[in-house]
Specification:
The chain has 304 residues and is α/β, with parallel strands linked by helices. The protein has helices at 2-5, 22-38, 55-68, 86-100, 113-125, 130-133, 152-162, 178-194, 198-227, 236-241, 244-258, 267-278, and strands at 13-17, 41-48, 74-78, 106-108, 139-140, 143-144, 234-235, 286-288, 292-297, 300-303.
Length: 304
């Protein structure tokens, strides 16, 4: 926590996202302890998703618990969970919008090493690329994750030592959710088959892949700037000359900047765009998420 606050100026507002679970309660306690030393103002936000009976009362209880730790201001935000991608994805989007909508310069999230390992394993099962397998970054915009190298068992031990009573969300143990199956079935099975340390190894792999993905994304950004025509189109011959790992990143970046939602732009979409460049045989436009279309016109790849 101390290193996560080190670059902030005195008097700036930092808030912890607190659900009431052990990870977020330990996060709130660590922030309350370190904020005075860093000179920052420490607050908290708890989000009521409205998905369970009594969620509003529970959010108030969580708010009172973090106030008792000395955090102020403490905000309770109510969200509406809806949209594509299932309830987990919809709840995550709604939560992140609510958390980002504060006056804080930094919003701290309590994701642990175990959460990182689960994320990598889930994405590996979906056949994701290196950027997705890089897992959750320690920093992204206003969001910071100080506990990415802390085990879940450590946050539980911290709560016990501090006399904090975590709330156990029943959704976390519901086998209807993929993350719950990974947490209680898949990872323990891997530990039994391969020995201890699987979670830590997955988290290390995420760190390594993130470094690689950062370099490739930077190279793709430079390549795209070079080969983008004044009308915004991409030169097909220049695209075809790029290494596949760079070219597909250029195509993805261009589609996202043109309006395709990054969360729904899949590998199949990028492959179809790549076929317009490398396997051109007169095929028609490619439909992309967000009502976007990518098409080849003469020697240009354009989006509309």
């Amino acid at each position: 926590m101390r290193s996560s606050l080190r670059d902030l100026a005195a008097g700036e507002l930092v808030v912890a996202a607190v659900s009431g679970g052990a990870d977020s309660l330990a996060l709130a306690a660590a922030l309350a302890h370190e904020a005075p030393r860093a000179g920052v103002v420490a607050g908290a936000v708890t989000v009521d998703h409205g998905l369970q009976e009594g969620s509003g009362e529970r959010a108030k209880e969580v708010a009172n618990a973090v106030r008792a730790l000395g955090l102020d201001p403490v905000l309770v935000k109510t969200v509406v969970v809806r949209g594509p991608g299932g309830p987990e994805a919809a709840a995550r989007r709604a939560r992140h919008r609510a958390l980002a909508d504060t006056q804080a310069v930094a919003v701290l999230l309590g994701h642990t090493l175990d959460d990182q390992a689960e994320t990598v394993l889930l994405r590996l099962a979906r056949g994701s690329g290196s950027r997705s397998l890089a897992g959750m970054p320690a920093r992204a915009g206003v969001f910071r994750r100080p506990f990415l190298h802390v085990r879940r068992a450590q946050t539980r031990a911290a709560c016990l030592a501090l006399g904090l009573v975590p709330w156990e969300d029943p959704h976390n143990a519901d086998p209807a959710y993929a993350r719950s199956r990974v947490r209680y079935d898949a990872l323990p099975a891997l530990e039994r088959a391969l020995g201890p340390g699987v979670a830590a190894a997955l988290a290390r792999s995420a760190d390594l892949l993130r470094d690689d993905a950062d370099v490739l994304d930077e190279a793709a950004g430079k390549a795209r700037a070079y080969l983008t025509a004044p009308d915004g189109g991409l030169d097909v011959d220049d695209l075809a000359a790029l290494a596949p790992a760079i070219r597909t990143r250029v195509l993805r970046q261009a589609a996202v900047d043109a309006g395709a939602p990054p969360g729904t732009l899949a590998k199949g979409h990028v492959d179809a765009l790549d076929a317009l460049v490398t396997r051109w045989c007169g095929q028609g436009p490619v439909s992309l998420p967000g009502g976007l279309v990518g098409e080849r016109r003469c020697d240009r790849l354009t989006f509309r």
